[in-house]
Amino acid sequence: MKRKLLAGFLLLVMLVGMLSGCDRSQSPDEPETGAASAQSLFQISVTDPEPAAPEEPTPASPEASEAEDNAPIEEAEPEPSGETGFWHRPTGLTQEPAAPVQPSPTLSGNEKPEPEPIPEPEPTPEPEPVPAPEPEPEPAPEPIRAAPVVELYVYNRYESDSVNGSYISLLESTYHAARLSEQSARDYPQLAEAMEQYARSYVQTMTEELDEYTQWATEQIQWLAEDPDRGVEDFVNYSDDSTLTVFRADSQAVSMLRTHFAYIGGVHPDYWYDCENYDVQTGRSLALSAVISDLSALPAVLEPLLTEQYGDIFFNLHEDLSAMDWEDSVWVLGPDGITFYFSPYVLSFFAAGAQMVTLNPRQYPDLFTSAYRDLPREWAVTIPLGEEFSFHDTSGGYDTVYAVSNYDSYGSDIDSITVRWNGLETTIPEVYCYDATPVLMCSADYGAYLYLDCLSDNDYHILFVVSPGDNGPRLVETASTNGFGYRFDPDTYCTVQAAITSPRSFLLTRRCQLLSSYTVTAEFHMGPQGLPVAYDPHFPILAGYTLTTLRELTFPLVEESGQLTGQTVTLPTGSRLSFAYTDCETYVDLRLFDDRLCRVEVSREEPFNWPLYIQGYKADECFDGMMFAG
Q1: SS (H, E, C) 470-515
Q2: Predicted confidence (pLDDT) per residue in 495-519, tens digit
Q3: Omega cis (within 30) before 607
Q4: What is the mean predicted confidence (pLDDT) over 163-179?
Q5: Judging by DSSP bridges, how do beta strands 238-249 and 494-498 pair with one another?
Q6: What is the DSSP letter of 351?
Q7: What is the pTM of this model?
Q8: Which residues of 420-455 are buried (b: 16+ CB within 10 A; e: fewer)?
Q9: In the chain, helix, strand, coil percent, each to 5?
Q10: Which of 131, 300, 359, 379 could be 335's S-S partner, Cβ–Cβ 3.0 to 4.6 Å?
Q11: Do residues 556 and 540 make contact, with C-beta atoms less than 8 angstroms apart?
Q12: Sign of the torsion formed by the C-alpha atoms of 527, 531, 535 and 537
């Protein structure tokens, strides 16, 4: 009983000490109230941690309990713990002291203290997802490469001598070597290397051969000069020409026919054929066995075809065909399959000429390998003047085209050209040129058309476009300023012309007469009615002319693409400008000294399109340095 009274007394002492400590936190002007003390206690009970349960005392013996009950009761003095108002619990208690409590705002009346917010538990962070292993990247697809562009380098050589004061021509020669364009060489490096090696070897062979012919010609002239019954006027100059015709150039094969024509004395000149065939992907020489599945079957197939085409001109056709080394024969791939060429003396005598026969995979599917069983749907090929060319058109019909030049009474210039298409003829009059190049183009969209590039004086080209027509061939257009594109190569001193092998991309040159005479070259494609259409009519000018302003002029500025910038430039008198671009019809873009471009709009006076006007002034009143050709 005494133990219980002692515990109650100690608890009362603890409460009084707590209340007195809490009162210190009140404002000195605020009276102490029991409610305030109780509320302070309530606040402490909320924030203070729950006291630990007291330890159970060890049960004492009856003698000890009786002595403890008779002992006098002593009061325990509370120990102050400083200005905080908190105190240490009596030593006899095992409960840990409460944590210090921050003073709370004073409450008055019946106000209830606002409970301190219970902090929300922090969310458990979600585990970061483990990234899945990245799949190995698939190999990038190879870029789609354009068909190889074959450029023909034209080599010329002329040798002469003077004998007894007379000028004597010894030798003339023109021959071709084929190489790839710069872009195609990057796209097909193996093919480019193979063609370059062959071109170098061929040029070296021709150089040595022409040196030998020149020596022969010199010796013959000396012999004629010493012959009392003859003279040097009896000498006929030597010639050795070889031209290349590209029959096919696509992503699968490049196939070219070389035609030789030579005269080095004797009764008549000689001519023969050779070929160059390449596998585009590997750059290697294309074997005939890669095209024809069974070479031993060729004699049985070709013999009746040759007999049907040429009649009884052969001596031992069966034996000659059977003994032939077909891998060493002359053949090319063209729009209608494979064509074999037999030079004079191969199958018959010289007067019988050469023989040609074409095998079409549609007619002989089992004779061709699977790689060369399909015919190209679009193509372009240069055909010789005076020779028939047969092909299957886009509708499946079989066409035959023939173009022949008609010379004037002097026999020197071409006066007109006759075109025969499937037996029907038309004649293009008043051509007035000395050379003509016919190119047959076949487009999947527009069909077949014949382009005739005629070369006249002063390197002036005239382009004729001929359609087959419903009632015979018909002249579609005459473009008097267009011709097939060419360039000059300073490294070889050759004229270089890109072979035309596709109606979707070919080069044409155009003679322009705006502010000067010059020639531009651009990429074209066949359009409706077979007419050539430029991909970009903003033509670059390669002429090195310089113009000087004769008066102050203001022009709009343009970008390299030809787009107007919206700004202008005023050029004082004496400003120097160079040619940059033109559309050959209405404007010329000139380059300033600081590399900017300005546009000069040009108008013409009808009906002769002359003179030229710039902003109301005649062109020769605005610029000095213009040069025009006749």
Answers
A1: CCCCEEEEEECCEEECCEEECCCCEEEEECCCCCCCEEEEEEECCC
A2: 999 999 999 999 999 889 999 999 8
A3: yes
A4: 90
A5: unpaired
A6: G
A7: 0.72
A8: bbbeeebebeebebeebbbbbbbbeebbbbbbbbbb
A9: 20, 35, 45
A10: 379
A11: no
A12: negative
Angle (CA) 384-390-392 rounded to 5° is 135
Do residues 600 and 592 touch, judged by C-beta distance below 8 A?
no
Decide: 249 and 147 in contact? Cβ < 8 Å. Answer: yes
Q: What are phi and psi of 193, to 5 degrees?
A: -65, -45
> Using an 8 Å Cβ cutoff, are 624 and 614 in contact?
no
Q: Are strands 270-279 and 253-263 parallel, antiparallel or unpaired?
A: antiparallel
Confidence of residue 108 (pLDDT cuts 50, 70, 90): very low
Length of the chain: 630
Spell out the residues 6+ positions from residue 424 whose beta carbon is closer than 8 angstroms to its own. Answer: 469, 471, 472, 473
With the C-alpha atoms ordered 498, 503, 504, 509, is the resulting torsion angle positive or negative? positive
How far is residue 459's CA from residue 20's CA, in Å, rounded to a whole number? 123
With 90 as the cut, is the pLDDT of residue 51 above it?
A: no
Farthest CA pair distance, the chain: 179
The token pair at 579 is 């040619």
The DSSP line for 113-149 is PPPPPPPPPPPPPPPPPPPPPPPPPPPPPPPPPPPPP
Average pLDDT of the chain, as a whole number:
82
In sequence order, what are the residues at sequence separation of 6 or more whose Cβ sits closer than 8 angstroms to the Cβ of residue 287? Answer: 327
Distance CA 453, CA 619 (A): 32
Q: How confident is the model at residue 217 (pLDDT cuts 50, 70, 90)?
A: very high
pLDDT of residue 617: 95
Sheet holding 494-498, edge to edge: 270-279, 253-263, 238-249, 166-180, 150-163, 494-498, 487-489
Burial per residue of 540-570, b for 16 or more beta-carbon CB atoms within 10 angstroms, e otherwise: ebebeeebebbeebebbbbeeebeeeeeebe
Distance CA 284, CA 191 (A): 7
Does residue 28 contact residue 47 with C-beta atoms inside 8 Å? no
Phi-psi region of 434 (alpha: psi -120 to 50; beta: other; left: phi over 0): alpha
Of 596, 590, 597, 595, whose CA–CA distance to 623 is shortest? Answer: 590
CA dihedral 565, 569, 575, 577 (to 10 degrees): 10
Which residues make Cβ contacts (< 8 Å) with residue 551, sequence separation at least 6?
A: 573, 617, 621, 622
> Cα–Cα distance between 101 and 118 in angstroms, integer?
16
Place of tokens 């011709």: 483
CA 359, distance to chain mean position in Å, is 35
> Taking a C-beta distance cutoff of 8 angstroms, is the pair 217, 171 a contact?
yes
